[in-house]
Amino acid sequence: MCMGVAAAVLLMGLLAGCSGSKTAPSGGTNAAASGETIKVGVLFSVSGSLAVTEKGMANAALLAIEEINASGGINGKMIQPIQEDLASEPSVAATKAKKLLQQDKVVAIVGGYTSASRQAMLPIVEQYNGVLVYPTFYEGEEYSKNIIYTGATPNQQLQEFVPWLIENVGPKVYFIGSDYVYPVETNKQVKEMLKLHGGEVVGEEYVPLGHSEFASVVNKIKAADPDFIFSTLVGDSVAAFYKQYKSYGLSPEDMPIASPVTAESEIVSMGADVAAGHYVSAAYFQTADTPENKKFVEAYQAKYGADEPITQVIEATYFSTHLLAEALKKVDDVHDADQVIKAFAGLEYNAPQGKVKIDEENNHAWLHSRIGKIGPDGQVEIVRETTEPIYPEPWSKLLFPDHEEPWKK
Amino acid sequence: MVMQQIADGLGVAGVLAIAALGLGIVFGVMKIINMAHGELIMIGAYTTYMVCTVGHLSYYAGMVASFLVAAAVGLLMERFILRRLYGRPLETLLATFGLSIFLQQFIRLVFGPDGKSVSSPFQGTWMIGDVAIPLFRLFIVIVAIVMILVTAWVMFRTRFGMQLRAVTQNRSMSECLGLNTSRIDALTFAFGAGLAGLAGAVLAPIKTVSPSMGLDYLIDSFMVVVLGGIGSLAGTALGSGLLGESNQLMTAFISETGAKMIVFLLVILVIRFRPEGLFRMERR
Fold it and tell me: B205 CB near a chain A CB, below 8 Å?
């Protein structure tokens, strides 16, 4: 009987290890025919609890690759996407990154959503001297010569949003967030900004990831009586919190929830009636009014469905893949990671969010910032947006005014 | 503020009771550790989504449908997989764990990984002085009480219930006396699964309906059952009440993470001194 159990466990382990390795058939890539192709890794979770966010990112990368190939590829050579599933597990991210770099010999990987997955991939891409393009907004405090960060750093996420909130909604803030590095670090920044702009912290609460019971939190919020609630909840917690906030009689007229995380997909999940009236901020919203965005939304929805919400990380993955192609076009040897990374420096692109640029020095991207109020139909009404992109500070000047800049070495 | 917490605790306890009831019956009667219990709750929630949000039928129709669909899934599970594994707890654990992963991914493939929206049929809050009681939470507590009473009626006032209790106390003797234990097992599992589905229907309007929503409830349900005593209905009711209230009262003073931790420690303490839980079940 023990043997049976051991065999079953072994089998399950093998099955889990061999999960979803597939070369994605992306529209116009007829890779084998032309012989010489350039392989690019696409590494996101399409299974597990993070698939809700990351599946769209993989879709965006594949869409971009299709468009790049349709307009001639990289100097005539087609891109062959090699898609892997990181299955919401950071350890799998490391394994798959290694496989992509070592076995498949991809010239670059576009991938990662959680900081945990990026931190798992960092030593791998540095060890094998590869290129990782990481399109997700994060808590900063990182730099690697092998990673291009195209997601917003805290200063880009907050420097427009927080002062606007204090000015237009009120100074008293209650923090609610999921209990891990991103919310905790982000809130540190926000607290510094509150000091500068005359805001006041009336409460701070962190709940475990995936936690969905908010009765007592709502209670504490009521007792503290803030002007607005700053939420860095992620995942399943988001819809549950907004729903329960409403069920206890709280209203966005008096005490709105402001979040840099809540996006179109969470709005769909909680329902427009629950979401209406609250504030969100991101580099990009689906309702952004640029010609590039109109084309992008049309193409994305034509390929993946008219009801698919398009969030900032999806847009970021899209323009990052295009930026990668531009960088690859500029180099002599696409397999030379140092050349590729150098080619990114100063590169500009007309993304759906507006013009973006990779900084000449710190491997991060100049990005826009938008503030939106969720309308009664669940669409984000943009109340304020930048016309010029904002400089990225991996180590925020507010919290770390004298921090050394590793890219200067 | 404390009164509010106590009222909230009742709401939380109601949710726990409904979620744990199905597990308690299955665990108590059949000694099956059903790791897919959370997914049965999730299936109930998705059924409610299909019936109410997509089908535009009434919420009560959704509740009934959730019970039936989850019961059907439970029956299939029992007939095709679990029946062959009776008396082998390790294999059952593994099999149900595998089923849990399978069901999550299946739902993810069919419905997509994003959260689905189910609106609450009872909007509004009942104010008693300073204490706010959301009407839907009140509904949950009422449903929990009704379900416990119905289950108690089935167990103690029906012939089927008597057979069920006989099998629980002494399986081989019941077989000797001519009971079709195989059929009783199937029906019991289906009933427990149905209760889980109903829990899902009740949770859908206040939580996020997503493929991974069941995981949270698995642990909580097991805690309630182990604390209350395996196979005891009163134990499940009391266990959920205790856990719900203590969690809520504690979170008034400390963080959610801290409160959860302390509640776990308290459960461990109780089990240490009373391994069978609060209510012991007779066995011969």
Answer: yes
Q: Which residue of A55, A209, A212, A238 is the best one to mutate when testing the B interface, meaning the one whose CB has the most B CBs within 10 A?
A: A212
DSSP state of A374: E
Q: Domain for residue B281, yes or no? A: no
Tens digits of residue pLDDT in B154-185? 888 999 888 888 887 888 898 999 888 888 88
> What is the C-alpha separation between A226 and A174, in angstroms, rounded?
6
> How distant is the alpha carbon of residue A366 from its chain centre?
15
- What does each C-alpha distance from A112 to A46, B67, B71, B95, B198 come to in angstroms? 12, 39, 39, 32, 37
Query: At A32, is the pLDDT very low, low, confident or very high (cuts 50, 70, 90)?
Result: very low
Centre a 10 Å sphere on the Cβ of residue A53 and count the other Cβ atoms it contains.
24
Least Cα distance to A194 among A3, A407, A398 occurs for: A398
Tell me the per-residue pLDDT of A306-342, one tens digit each, with 9 for 90 and over: 888 899 999 999 999 999 999 999 999 989 999 999 9
**DSSP category for residue A367:** B
Quickly list H helices, A103-224.
Answer: 115-127, 154-158, 161-168, 181-197, 215-224
The 10 Å Cβ neighbour count of residue A239 is: 29
How far apart CA A326 and CA A350 sit, in angstroms, is 12
A156-283+370-408 is classed in which CATH architecture?
A: 3-Layer(aba) Sandwich (3.40)
Triad B232, B236, B242: Cα angle to 5°? 135
Tens of pLDDT along A126-145?
999 999 999 999 988 899 99
Range of the domain at B258: 2-273
Cβ–Cβ of B212/A213 closer than 8 Å? no
Distance, CA of B49 to CA of B44 (rounded, Å): 9
pLDDT over 90, % of chain A: 69
Topology of A37-151+292-366 in CATH? Rossmann fold (3.40.50)
Read off the DSSP letter of residue A14.
Answer: H
Count Cβ atoms below 10 Å from residue B253 Cβ, excluding itself: 12
Cα A254 to Cα A92, A202, A221, A229, A231, distances in angstroms: 44, 16, 12, 11, 16
Q: pLDDT at residue A367 above 80?
A: yes
Q: For residue B256, give how far its alpha carbon lies from the nearest alpha carbon of chain A (Å).
A: 6
Specify the number of domains making up chain B: 1
This model of the complex carries an ipTM of 0.74
Residue range(s) of every CATH 3.40.50.2300 domain in chain A:
37-151+292-366, 156-283+370-408
For A394-405, give the DSSP string. SS-TTT-TT---
Is B162 domain-assigned? Answer: yes
Residue A207 to chain B, least CA–CA distance (Å): 6
* pTM for the whole structure: 0.80
Measured in whole angstroms, the distance separating CA A179 from the mean position of its chain's CA atoms is: 18
